[in-house]
């Protein structure tokens, strides 16, 4: 089953851009998911289990690297917001 997640991060830090940019950079290194980042959120899509694993690991990585942050997410199971593109 596919899963699409719209994710926004709000660091508990006055200098909020480095934690957000670091988290997005970390996400971009993860295999077997597709991402699209816009001004207000990042959309993640892929296999349900893989996306949930990436989110779990990403939240832990973010906390270890940058401290506390609030993550706001919308989950849409069974939907592929970013279909694979022909290359």
UniProtKB/TrEMBL annotation:
SUPFAM superfamilies: MTH1187/YkoF-like (SSF89957). It comes from the Bacteria. InterPro entries: MTH1187/YkoF-like, Thiamin/HMP-bd_put_YkoF. Residues 5-66 form the Thiamin/hydroxymethyl pyrimidine-binding YkoF putative domain. Signal peptide: none annotated. This is YkoF family thiamine/hydroxymethylpyrimidine-binding protein. The lineage of its organism: Bacteria, Pseudomonadati, Pseudomonadota, Gammaproteobacteria, Cellvibrionales.
